[in-house]
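Budget justification aside, the reviewers requested a transparent look at the raw inputs and outputs of the sequence design task funded under Objective 1. We therefore reproduce one unedited record. The lines immediately below are the structure tokens for a 467-residue chain.
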């Protein structure tokens, strides 16, 4: 597969930099440093995008705040993956009429995946008059230009021109922590699973150049980051569009060869493109976490076909076996959808039996949500809401018992954890497999790897003691 790669030119990015300087100059002349708030919904790609939005805001002379009432600029970076996520955004954007009334100079932006849909942009335009800027993920790099326009000229900005997407290198990012960092290796998705909105709002798959990724990884490791997660909707298809003969395993190998004490993770892996080479590469490096997030979505081959997932139950189970042949203790997590249109009780029981036989460490469980514009939105969907809820509850109960047993098995073991923060007076840390371990200890340990004896567990976390 090959197509035109659209890389935003240096010249265009220089223009945005010039605009950032112009806004910074205006902000520096204000009596008080203005403040900005970025609120993020959705997945890690959106978290990574929000770090860029914050990076641009800092460069434009804003301070950051969490308080909507005092913010001069509010950016809502939204998600469209399920209806519930969209409802929350409408509710929260609606509530901003009050903050804006109290502070009429406030500028409000709605961006991200939800904003990329024309129906959403139209609704914001007509019914949410207090929103000043609406733009999709493709136009993220032009945020300085949009903000400059509403600040200096007034009016509203709507930029959701559909695009296969482009790559903009060199946008400043303000990372949330100093321990964990996201590193995007590719953007977009080509898979068009029939239930999913992502390919429509994020455009086609496009890979960043290996040298850009490696350079960013070096920078993160030099800056002291200890836990780096490589991001993409389907990292296993990394590089196909480049035609350089470099695949995702090669990127993992190259980054893990960088000297330093750090852990490398990645998500998400699509089962159709997971390879033996990937598992061999993971098994061969101490720095690559022995964890794979491998969404299966359904245990029924018939439903998988209707979902356009391009693998069946048997292929999924054999992949899990292959991964465990290479890494017997690998931590496996997954996503599953309950109540896909036409899913029968029989299909659902196949999902249950898959969960029982694989025994995932954790499972992200979703009830199917109809996304207008996707093929599945027009499929007959006879199961009632109650039936779907009942299936969902049964699946959660099953997974909870598996998670609990799996977590219990950690008790008495020694795990090397990365201490990454604190919460309610306890330190939080993660095992190599990404399991949360709470422990007592001093704040100064944040950012270090330590051996911990696991002393307790529940469904979703472990507790331990420093050794
Ligand atoms: N690219 C990733 C998934 C990104 S979306 C992958 O293919 O694995 C994250 C999860 O949201 C999906 O794995 C799926 O389980 C869920 N999801 C996506 N669309 C959905 C919908 N319309 N209704 C319910 N869940 C959905
Ligand atoms: Fe959505 Fe499928 Fe792409 Fe994942 S692989 S983002 S589920 S279309
Ligand atoms: Fe949501 Fe967009 Fe991620 S739709 S799940 S924020 S790619």
């Amino acid at each position: 597969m090959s197509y035109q790669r659209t890389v935003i030119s240096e010249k265009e990015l220089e223009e945005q930099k010039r605009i950032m300087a112009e806004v910074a100059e205006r902000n520096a002349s204000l009596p008080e440093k203005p403040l900005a708030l970025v609120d993020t919904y959705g997945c890690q790609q959106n978290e990574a995008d929000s770090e860029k939005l914050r990076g641009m805001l800092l460069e434009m002379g804003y301070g950051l705040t969490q308080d909507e009432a005092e913010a001069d600029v509010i950016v809502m970076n939204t998600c469209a993956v399920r209806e519930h996520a969209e409802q929350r955004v409408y509710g929260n954007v609606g509530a901003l009429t009050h903050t804006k009334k109290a502070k009429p100079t406030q500028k409000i932006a709605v961006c991200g995946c939800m904003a990329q849909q024309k129906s959403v942009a139209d609704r914001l335009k007509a019914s949410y008059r207090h929103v000043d800027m609406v733009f999709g993920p493709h136009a993220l790099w032009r945020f300085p230009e949009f903000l400059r326009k509403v600040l200096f000229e007034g009016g509203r900005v709507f930029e959701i021109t559909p695009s296969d997407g482009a790559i903009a290198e060199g946008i400043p990012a303000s990372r949330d922590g100093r321990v964990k960092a996201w590193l995007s290796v590719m953007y977009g998705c080509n898979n068009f699973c029939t239930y999913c909105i992502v390919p429509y709002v994020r455009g086609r798959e496009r890979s960043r150049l290996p040298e850009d990724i490696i350079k960013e990884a070096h920078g993160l490791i030099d800056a002291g980051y200890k836990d780096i997660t490589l991001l993409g909707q389907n990292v296993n298809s990394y590089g196909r569009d480049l035609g350089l003969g470099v695949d995702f395993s090669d990127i993992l190998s190259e980054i893990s060869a960088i000297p330093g004490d750090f852990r490398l993770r990645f998500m998400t892996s699509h089962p159709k493109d997971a390879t033996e080479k990937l598992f061999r590469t993971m098994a061969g490096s101490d720095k690559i976490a022995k964890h794979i997030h491998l969404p299966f979505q359904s245990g029924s081959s018939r439903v998988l076909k209707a979902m356009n997932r391009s693998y069946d139950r048997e292929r999924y189970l054999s992949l899990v076996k292959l991964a465990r042949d290479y890494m017997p203790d690998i931590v496996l997590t997954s996503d599953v959808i309950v109540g896909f249109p036409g899913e029968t009780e029989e299909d659902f029981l196949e999902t249950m039996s898959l969960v029982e036989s694989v025994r995932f460490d954790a499972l992200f469980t979703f009830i199917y949500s109809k996304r207008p514009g996707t093929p599945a939105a027009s499929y007959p969907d006879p199961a009632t809401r109650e039936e779907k809820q009942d299936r969902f509850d049964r699946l959660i109960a099953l997974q909870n018992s598996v998670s609990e047993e799996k977590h219990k098995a950690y008790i008495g073991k020694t795990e090397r954890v990365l201490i990454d923060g604190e919460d309610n007076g306890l330190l939080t840390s993660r095992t190599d497999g990404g399991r949360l371990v709470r422990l007592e200890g001093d704040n100064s340990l944040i950012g270090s790897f330590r051996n911990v004896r696991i002393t307790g567990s529940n469904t979703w976390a472990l507790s331990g003691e420093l050794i």
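The first helix runs from residue 10 to 28. Residues 189, 191-193, 196, 198-199, 233-234, 270 surround iron/sulfur cluster (ligand 2) (CB under 6 Å). Computational costs for records of this kind are itemized in the attached budget.
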